[in-house]
Amino acid sequence: MQRTVLLAKIHNCTLTGANINYVGSISIDKILLDKAGILPYEQVQVVNNANGERFITYAIPAPAHSGVIELNGAAARLGITGDRLIIMTYGQFTVEELNNYSPRVVIVDEKNCPLEVRHYNDLLSSTM
């Protein structure tokens, strides 16, 4: 059996823009993608803390060190500049794989500069 578990998260980032005319997705500073281990075009779930919206799209890299977090296409209607977001990816693992696994969490400041990368350790020890 496989379990779907948090793979990576960019926590409390600030939405820097919205572009309704773009084809779709969410643009994310390449440095943040790299630190979180999120691949270009990987599916992400986005949670908007300001309005409660939750949606799924895919990540595209924005220029490194730009601080850009921008909603594109239809998703641009789900947030406004300044909203705080959580961006997450998930992976499917066997219970055996989870024994040596820990999700990666990137903590950012209000300008989307990475402050810290955390790992949730002992994922299974507290639940099984």
Automatic annotation (TrEMBL):
Cofactor binding mode and count:
Binds 1 pyruvoyl group covalently per subunit.
Which reactions does this protein catalyse? L-aspartate + H(+) = beta-alanine + CO2
Q: Which UniProt keywords apply?
A: Autocatalytic cleavage, Cytoplasm, Decarboxylase, Lyase, Pantothenate biosynthesis, Pyruvate, Schiff base, Zymogen
Q: Where in the cell is it found?
A: Cytoplasm
Q: Which GO terms describe its molecular function?
A: aspartate 1-decarboxylase activity
Q: Which domain of life is it from?
A: Bacteria
| Cofactor field | pyruvate
Pathway, per Swiss-Prot/TrEMBL? Cofactor biosynthesis; (R)-pantothenate biosynthesis; beta-alanine from L-aspartate: step 1/1
Q: How is it modified after translation?
A: Is synthesized initially as an inactive proenzyme, which is activated by self-cleavage at a specific serine bond to produce a beta-subunit with a hydroxyl group at its C-terminus and an alpha-subunit with a pyruvoyl group at its N-terminus.
What biological-process GO terms show up in the record?
alanine biosynthetic process; pantothenate biosynthetic process
What interactions and quaternary structure are annotated?
Heterooctamer of four alpha and four beta subunits.
Q: What is the role of the protein in this entry?
A: Catalyzes the pyruvoyl-dependent decarboxylation of aspartate to produce beta-alanine.
The UniProt entry's sequence similarity note says: Belongs to the PanD family.
Query: What is the designated name of this protein?
Result: Aspartate 1-decarboxylase
Organism whose genome encodes this protein: Umezakia ovalisporum FSS-62
